[in-house]
Amino acid sequence: MLVETNPLHPEPRKIRRAVDALLAGEVIAYPTDTVYGLGCDIQNRKAIDKLYMIKGMDRSHPLAFICPDLSEIARYAIVDNQVYRVLRRFLPGPYCFVLEATREVPRILQTKRKTIGIRVPNHAVTAAVVGELGRPILSTTAQRSGADPHVDARELDDDFKGLGLVIDAGAGGSIPTTVIDLTVQPPAIIREGAGSIDDFVDEAPRSLRGMRDAMRQLKEDLRD
Fold first, then answer.
1. First to last CA, the chain
2. Gap between the Cα atoms of 132 and 34, Å rounded
């Protein structure tokens, strides 16, 4: 089912339809500040199983929590002062930060390292859905392995069979979220995406910074 909504001012009744689908154990597709995502209720075991099945993922593949704001993150992740400063600076935004999980995170959703990915997208529709639900959405990108993300929400129903609802808020992005692990020092860049990594690379050892500068210079030389 495709539900079109205003990307900046989503209609409350349409947000409610998405939340009702989540509460009914459905998997939905929804817009973010990067690419479209697939998500379900973190408290529904059958919905989690369905999400993995629809995406065609191995159960070892980690997923992220979509939180409405920074205040909700501390319930599911351990946030010390240093981590909080990073989160406050870069969220909402196109980042997923890997943090240590608290006991509030269901064991089946934790990695072997007992970590969890946290997202706060800068998108009105996502914020409205999560806010109305009252807890995070378990999320993954609406993208097949090795394929480009779907920019057109109408293509999602065809590619991901079994979705309960697709929120169409216009064209999505084509570059996924940047994923950064904050449980190690210096922070580890798991995936470079829409969010800049420059601030995190600058915190890395000098040898890594020098190697990155050298690679940039090499690319410029090859273009000349």
1. 50
2. 21
Q: Give per-residue pLDDT as tens, 51-108.
A: 999 999 988 888 999 998 888 999 999 999 999 999 999 999 999 999 999 999 987 7
Please state, in angstroms and rounded to a whole number, the distance separating the CA atoms of residues 73 and 120.
Answer: 9
- How do residues 120-142 score in pLDDT, each as one tens digit? 999 999 999 999 999 999 999 99
Which one, of 125, 148, 120, lies nearest residue 29 by Cα?
A: 125
Report, as an integer, the average pLDDT of 155-180.
95
The CATH code that applies to domain 2-194 is 3.90.870.10
Domain ranges of the chain: 2-194
At residue 211 the predicted structure's pLDDT band, cuts being 50, 70 and 90, is very low
